[in-house]
Amino acid sequence: ETNIDEITVEVVASKDDSCYVALSHVWADGLGNAKATALPRCQLSRVKALVENLDFDYLPETAGSGRPGNTSEILLWCDTLCCPVQDRSAKNMALLQMYRTYERASVVLVLDRGLISHHQGRASVIQACIRVATSRWMTRLWPLQEGALPAKKNRLWFQFTKTALPL
After folding, report:
1. Dihedral angle at the C-alpha atoms of 70, 71, 72, 77, nearest 10 degrees?
2. pLDDT per position as a tens digit, 91-116
3. What's the pTM value of the predicted model, to 2 decimals?
4. Strand (E) or helix (H) holding 29
């Protein structure tokens, strides 16, 4: 369990070898904020717990290290936190970098309320794929970019109730 008081948010400059988890989500599910570049602590705590539970050993470049970049710290990219709301030119610059952001992510974690409410358990991969294909996340325009780029490298993960699956 994550202690809300232990969560810190800081801006870290991106480098070519930066290892991070990028979130792809439906804003209406609670991770969007049209008024500020911020999220409530409870949402940050929830996201932190989900990211910390990812099985990074599944990725070939992190096998045995437990984390991308062989570090205990996990960097997170979330549009709500990384795309400025007030400064229009800064927001446009961030949006122009979205392709690069998702293409270079160590993992893209998809958060969709409908998927998260489903306990995957021993259900087949086909059943999981059908759930993803019929999810609210798939009705958005962004999944083509946010999902297709990391999927080429097997870095697209979908969060279900108790586990995230690479599909």
Report:
1. -110
2. 889 888 888 888 888 899 999 999 99
3. 0.84
4. none
DSSP letter assigned to residue 91: H
How many whole angstroms from its chain centre is CA 132?
15
CB 61 within 8 A of CB 17: no
Q: Are 21 and 75 in contact (CB under 8 A)?
A: yes
Q: Is 11 left (phi over 0), alpha (psi -120 to 50) or beta?
A: beta
Those residues whose C-beta lies under 8 Å from the C-beta of residue 56, and which sit 6 or more positions away, are: 62, 65, 66, 67, 68, 106, 107
The amino acid present at 44, given as its one-letter code, is: L
Instruction: Using alpha carbons, select from 136, 132, 118, 120 the residue that is nearest to residue 167.
Output: 132
Contact 47, 23 (CB under 8 A): yes
Burial classification of residue 115, based on how many CB atoms lie within 10 Å of its CB (0-12 exposed, 13-18 middle, 19 or more buried): buried
Q: Do the strands 156-159 and 164-166 form a parallel or antiparallel pair, or are they unpaired?
A: antiparallel
DSSP 159: E
